[in-house]
Specification:
Elements lengths: L2 E6 L7 H16 L3 E6 L5 H10 L9 H24 L4 E4 L6 E3 L8 E4 L2 H8 L3 E5 L2 E4 L5 E3 L5 H11 L4 E6 L20 E3 H9 L7 H10 L3 E5 L7 E4 L14 E5 L2 E10 L4 H11 L7 E4 L7 E9 H13 L1 H4 L3 E5 L2 E7 L9 H11 L6 E5 L2 E7 L3 H11 L17
Parallel strand pairs: 1-2, 1-9, 2-6, 3-6, 4-7, 9-11, 10-12
Antiparallel strand pairs: 4-5, 7-8, 11-12, 13-18, 14-16, 14-17, 15-16, 18-20, 19-20
Helix pairs in contact: 1-3, 2-3, 5-7, 6-7, 11-12
The structure holds aspartic acid and magnesium ion.
Magnesium ion (MG) binds next to loops.
């Protein structure tokens, strides 16, 4: 019997009625002749609420042992309620925590990586005809058995990892929109749904801020060739197929598949850095030791006699403070003059596999922003992506302008079924 893995996000299980609805959908898939494994997120904004609660008793609200136990409670509530609802509707179901599902990870609290999956209990439960419900976003440390979480949005990773381990036919990711859109429909109401997108473009969209699929899940899917389908819990729409193009198979890819935005980045500028070999390496060694993932980098080479340069780079908001502190601590050693930061930036990216073979894409992007009087502060590119930094308060307007410029606007407004967008 083919196995289908279905993952339901927080807005799909945000209240009792929605949980009953998800139960019915899972039962339908089973009745259609499949084994069904469901991965659930915490109800609605539970994870954020638990984080708020933690902040009211401690300042240590980043990746630690106690916080991970607290946060996994959210997914355990939904998993047990869903299993109860399935049984109430006449089905057979069993729910499993990350530990019970055999998902072991490293010990990096708050962003653990999956180490190994031993799915024997799940397989047994499936064989007995159960719909298996697994709590998303959690595992246990293979070093000491402690509960770990996989990072925000990590339920996608749980689903894809289980789909890979169990060789599922497909991994369906259910949320509150009909699939992968050309832009976030909350920002661009005329965004349209893509029938399909290649995994490479999906990876770039996710890493550029698109929230529909969590980046580590997409990486996992690409590595293990798990076919993904992004669908809505609240409609029968077939959604978007995220496919891995087979070697040697040339598909006609759209030049631009989508526009992604990210308003969670900050910019740091190191001013007056000696313009000598090794200085950039010193700066980014300090950044790396502080544990930050940087994104865009721009260096302005000195024009004056003093042989000093400035380096700006972007990084997640949450990492800005520790990186500024780490750099300041080594200021005299490295020998730069000063450091500044800016939290009011926005990043916009256009992504498309067809960019590889198409010219004029950047001219069109920059031209459309110029016409609207939007200043570009930084630029970076990959083979299939161009990203620009703008002022944060211009990001939404910029997104709509670029979406229109690349003729991605649909005739009708996109449907959003649920969710707070938090
Ligand atoms: N509940 C967790 C979060 O909100 C994990 C998830 O939803 O995937 O980030
Ligand atoms: Mg959530």
């Amino acid at each position: 019997m083919p196995l289908i893995v279905q993952k339901y996000g927080g807005s799909s299980v945000s209240d009792a009625d929605k949980i009953k609805h998800v139960a019915a959908r899972a039962l339908e898939s089973q009745a259609a002749g499949n084994e069904v494994l469901v991965v659930v997120s915490a109800m609605g904004d539970t994870t954020d609420e638990l984080l708020d609660l933690a902040s009211s008793v401690t300042t240590e609200t980043q990746g630690n042992r106690e916080l991970d136990i607290l946060l996994t409670a959210g997914e355990r509530i939904s998993m047990s309620l869903l299993a109860m609802a399935i049984k109430e509707q006449g089905g057979k179901a069993m729910s499993f925590t990350g530990y019970q599902a055999g998902i072991s990870t490293d010990s990096e609290h708050g962003s653990a990586r999956i180490w190994k999956i031993d799915p024997s209990r799940i397989q047994e439960a499936l064989k007995e005809g159960n719909i298996v419900v697994v709590a998303g976003f959690q595992g246990f440390s293979f070093e000491n058995g402690d509960t770990t979480t996989l990072g925000r949005g990590g339920s996608d990773t749980t689903a894809v990892a289980l789909a890979a381990a169990l060789k599922a036919e497909v991994c369906e990711i259910y949320s509150d929109v009909d699939g992968v859109y050309t832009a976030d429909p909350r920002i661009v109401p005329r965004a349209h749904k893509l029938a399909q997108i290649d995994l490479d473009s999906m990876l770039e969209l996710s890493s550029s801020g698109a929230k529909i699929l969590f980046i580590r899940a997409v990486e996992f899917a690409r590595r293990h060739r798990v076919p993904l389908r992004v669908r809505s819990t609240f409609s029968a729409d077939p959604g978007t197929l995220v496919y891995s193009s087979k070697d040697g198979e040339e598909m006609e890819e759209p030049v631009v598949s989508g526009v992604a935005t990210d308003n969670t980045q900050s910019k740091i500028t190191v001013i007056g850095l000696p313009d000598r070999p090794g200085k950039a390496a010193e700066v980014f060694q300090i950044v790396a030791e502080a544990g930050a993932n940087i994104d865009m980098i721009v260096q302005n080479v000195s024009t004056t006699e003093n042989h000093l340069s400035d380096i700006s780079f972007t990084l997640p908001h949450n990492d800005r403070h520790k990186v500024v502190e780490a750099l300041k601590a080594k200021q005299s050693e490295v020998g730069f003059e000063s450091i500044s930061y800016d939290d009011e930036i926005g990043k916009l990216s256009i992504v498309g596999a067809g960019m590889k073979t198409s010219s004029g894409v950047s001219a069109k992007l920059f031209g459309s922003l110029a016409k609207a009087g939007i200043n570009i502060e930084m630029i970076s590119t990959s083979e299939i992506r161009i990203s620009v930094v703008t002022r944060a308060d211009q990001l939404k307007e910029a997104t709509r302008i670029v979406h229109t410029a690349f003729e991605l606007d649909a005739a009708e407004t996109a449907v959003i079924y649920a969710g707070s967008g938090r």
